[in-house]
Amino acid sequence: MRFIVSTSILLKQLQAISGASSSSTVLPILENFLFEIKDNVLTISATDLQTSMVTSLPIEAKEEGRVAMPSKILIETLKTLPDQPVAFSVDTATLAIEISAGDGKYKLSGENAEDFPKIPVVDNASSVTIPASVLAEAINKTIFAVSNDELRPAMSGVLVQLAEQSATFVATDAHKLVRYRRKDISTESPTSLILPKKALSLLKSSLPIEDTAVAVEYNSTNAFFKFGNIHLICRLIDERYPDYEAVIPQVNPNKLTLDRHTFLNSLRRVVIFANKTTHQVRLKISGSELNISAEDLDFSNEAHERLSCQFEGEDMEIGFNAKFLVEMLTNLDSEEVVIEMSTPNRAGLLIPAVSEEDEDILMLVMPVMLNNMG
């Protein structure tokens, strides 16, 4: 089996899908790319059994064939080569691979393609089309709130609820929650899926910058994403997602409106002086003034800042983990944010003061108990 391809084109394709391969000690075949040639098209696959990525490109090839090639050495070699045609020849009997580029020859050994796991195919799938920019936005707005707790597998992914007139993306780790709703995505067969974090991170890094449509197909076990010449297939998390609507407080008479950048920068400074395990900051609101403070008694560190704000409601004091607030404010785009609260021991809601046309975003953060030291 012989084929010729440009180093830069091949490298770009391999880098696009390399995140899906796994450095598994149990299954060494997962450290390989599967190369398949048919009708002058080279198809390359990578998988870790949960998430798979496939890409294809036209090439010059006299014959067809399949072989698994070690991914790390291949990418490292191509990275150091200038842009030039590179010829691969594979001895299908011994699986010896020879790469010729310019004046260099490089030899490595491949693995049997039959040992490479089968990439799932679409069966009985429903589909929805989502613009790449919308999908990227939904991932960016939610992925930071996904839980890393392996004992709660449902929360280790993003819940996607597809309805006839909207799509809702939800992520929570029990301390913070994001609900991101789009009114410009619709489907004829409403359903909900939990997409794993790794697949979403791979999607986020490989979605094209130019706005193409992403075809999403899904059945009860897998979701398939297609854009350009790349396919990403991931196994869905087969668990019940917690009833997130139940934790969103409905009556929040206290509304604090602030400039997002000013508040964010203030928190970033104040948290430096907070306890390193709780990252606790205290928000004390009276009239149109917000006092932000933090202290770390172990080191006698403390910080206080005063911001002007708009506030409707009773004067109050509430504590939050500043790291969570910083993450949330960083992932909002609006110039002003509103924090809605009821009491110091109930969750606070962060929402943009002005919403974008087709989106509705709500972020929830649990308070931390204040030890009243004045």
What can you tell me about this protein's structure?
- This protein is of the alpha+beta class and 374 residues long.
- It contains six helices and 26 strands.
- It is elongated, with a radius of gyration of 25 Å.
- The model has no long low-confidence stretch (mean pLDDT 94).
Percent of residues in beta strands? 35-45%
Report the structural category: alpha+beta
Helical content stands at 10-25%
How many helices does DSSP assign?
6
Beta strands, count? 26
N- to C-terminal distance: 77 Å
Side-by-side strand order of the widest sheet: 14-11-12-13-26-25-24-18-22
- State the shape: elongated
Uncertain stretches of 5 or more adjacent residues: none
Radius of gyration computed on alpha carbons: 25 Å
Please outline the major beta sheet.
9 strands, antiparallel
Average pLDDT, all residues = 94
Give structural attributes.
43% strand, 26 strands, nine-stranded antiparallel beta sheet, alpha+beta, eight-stranded antiparallel beta sheet, 374 residues
What is the topological layout?
Elements: E1 2-6, H1 7-17, E2 32-38, E3 41-47, E4 51-58, E5 60-61, E6 65-70, H2 71-80, E7 85-91, E8 96-101, E9 104-109, E10 126-131, H3 132-142, E11 157-162, E12 167-172, E13 176-182, E14 191-196, H4 197-206, E15 213-218, E16 222-227, E17 230-235, E18 254-259, H5 260-270, E19 280-286, E20 289-296, E21 301-308, E22 310-312, E23 316-321, H6 322-330, E24 336-341, E25 348-352, E26 359-365
Antiparallel strand pairs: 1-5, 1-7, 2-3, 2-6, 3-4, 4-17, 7-8, 8-9, 10-15, 11-12, 11-14, 12-13, 13-26, 15-16, 16-17, 18-22, 18-24, 19-20, 19-23, 20-21, 24-25, 25-26
